[in-house]
């Protein structure tokens, strides 16, 4: 379906339009929530970083909130852009956290308490069989994965409509460890 797109920019535009047309779907989100909950049990991270959903992305907040309630030693974090060409910074999040608008108007925890995640949930507009992710084009997650030591488990979150045969790949693209969609778990 997407073989005619030679550039990431053209593919981004097409995938965003598809996601917007599809709209919200409780069944699709419930299936993705179940896969994510199972993955969190299997990997048992101490600190799971997730993302604040924008542009029709899957909203993991309810799954993360439930996961946090299961054990007091668990923590969650949200990313924030500290500068344009730097890796993301992560800050502790709880359901009671006060939020402030960060770069791109995406909410981030207001208290700025640093966090060091051992598992990262990463939004994907698209992905391929090699677990290469297509994001919004800023390179923030690629820079972050390249910089964090030890590297956290990188889990892409996407809807199945974002799966493509092969993405145009660049030297800085880092394969994710796992990608979850409402239909499958790709490893």
From TrEMBL:
Molecular function GO labels: 5-formyltetrahydrofolate cyclo-ligase activity; ATP binding; metal ion binding
Pfam family, one: 5-FTHF_cyc-lig
Residues that, per the record, bind ATP: 8-12, 133-141
Positions bound to substrate: 57
Matching InterPro entries: FTHF_cligase, FTHF_cligase-like_sf, NagB/RpiA_transferase-like
UniProt keyword Lyase present: no
Cofactor(s) needed by this chain: Mg(2+)
Entry's family note: Belongs to the 5-formyltetrahydrofolate cyclo-ligase family.
NCBIfam families per the UniProt record, alphabetical: MTHFS_bact
Protein name as annotated: 5-formyltetrahydrofolate cyclo-ligase
